[in-house]
């Protein structure tokens, strides 16, 4: 069993797993400074990876994080890539750019996210949180997988979810909340995070026999640029939703905020721990595999995982038969 806890830092985990990190090439999305992706990349850079591919919407932010990495870990190769997850065309361009780098990717950490914005649709007509938090990552990862699979070596894919998945399942009959008429920012956020978990399930069922290990995770509650973008009064909506849905215990106790390092400890564990390979497809919290009895059924159902895969193929206009 994992020796780690709520208070474990990413440095502790990375030090224990340094032999697993050494020599690896890792792609991380959402790497703006002071965010979780940047914290993850900057910490693991100190433990000997071969290279880090830093993908984020604002290229200058990726370059800023790359400079921070070079300051502490000058031997690590870094590549900065512009990745706009709100545009399928831009995701395809980012995938092509990554492939042109001629790096042999071992680990993908799909970390980028938005949280609870006002309703919007992307240029492709897809509800915003579903597109950015899930669908863009589905397309990016699936475009990169053929080259990764061709090497016939172990592959690790980490999809950062959230305990916000508790707010509900993928709304297969109404992904866009009736064109925004019935939009609730937190139900939308929950839908996108549930989708990440179903995608993890689908990857393991389709590709587990080809040495693909995929995990989803809840990093904890961390004060980052993502959470700071939501006014505190709007977090009050969460308390009401939890009470309505029977999750009142979340708000009957004082929140314990994690530091960024504590927040990405589970990222490091999910990306590199060999001990969790036997739990392929698992959902992780606090560097531990979550007991399946406490994982919401709509995030782990095989039928829904396949249903989401097929729907996603239609939305991106491409089938993926690996």
UniProtKB/TrEMBL annotation:
Q: Which InterPro entries match?
A: NAD(P)-bd_dom_sf (IPR036291), SDR_fam (IPR002347)
Q: SUPFAM superfamilies, from UniProt?
A: NAD(P)-binding Rossmann-fold domains
- Pfam family name, one: adh_short
Query: Please, which domain of life does this record's source organism belong to?
Result: Eukaryota
MF terms per GO, please? oxidoreductase activity
UniProt keyword annotations, A-Z: Oxidoreductase
Q: Which family does it belong to?
A: Belongs to the short-chain dehydrogenases/reductases (SDR) family.
- Know the name of this protein? Short-chain dehydrogenase
From what organism does this protein derive? Clonostachys rhizophaga
């Amino acid at each position: 069993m994992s020796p780690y806890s709520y208070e474990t830092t990413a440095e502790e985990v990375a030090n224990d797993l340094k032999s697993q990190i050494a020599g690896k090439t890792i792609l991380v999305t959402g790497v703006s400074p002071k965010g979780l992706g940047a914290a993850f990349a900057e910490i693991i850079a100190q433990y000997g990876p071969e290279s880090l591919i830093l993908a984020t919407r604002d290229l200058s932010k990726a370059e800023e994080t790359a400079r921070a990495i070079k300051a502490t870990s000058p031997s690590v190769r870094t590549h900065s890539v512009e990745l706009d997850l709100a545009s399928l065309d831009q995701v395809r361009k980012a995938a092509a750019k990554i492939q042109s780098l001629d790096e042999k990717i071992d680990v993908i950490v799909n970390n980028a996210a938005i949280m609870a914005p006002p309703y919007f649709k992307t240029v492709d007509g897809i509800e915003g949180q579903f597109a950015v938090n899930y669908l863009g990552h589905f397309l990016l990862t699936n475009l990169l997988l053929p080259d990764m699979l061709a090497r016939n070596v172990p592959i690790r894919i980490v999809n950062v979810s959230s305990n916000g998945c508790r707010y509900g399942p993928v709304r297969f009959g109404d992904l866009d909340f009736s064109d925004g008429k019935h939009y609730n920012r937190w139900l939308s956020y929950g839908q996108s995070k549930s989708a990440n978990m179903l995608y993890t399930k689908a990857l393991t069922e389709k590709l587990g026999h080809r040495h693909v290990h995929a995990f989803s995770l809840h990093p904890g509650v961390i004060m980052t640029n993502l959470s700071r973008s939501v006014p505190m009064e709007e977090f009050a909506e969460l308390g009401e939703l939890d009470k309505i849905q029977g999750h009142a215990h979340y708000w009957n106790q004082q929140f314990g905020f994690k530091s960024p390092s504590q927040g990405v400890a589970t990222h490091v564990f999910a990306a590199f721990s060999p001990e969790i390979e036997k739990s392929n497809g698992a959902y992780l919290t606090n560097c531990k595999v979550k007991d399946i009895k406490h994982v919401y059924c709509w995030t782990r159902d095989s039928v829904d995982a396949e249903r989401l895969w097929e729907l996603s193929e239609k939305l991106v206009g491409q089938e993926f038969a690996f």
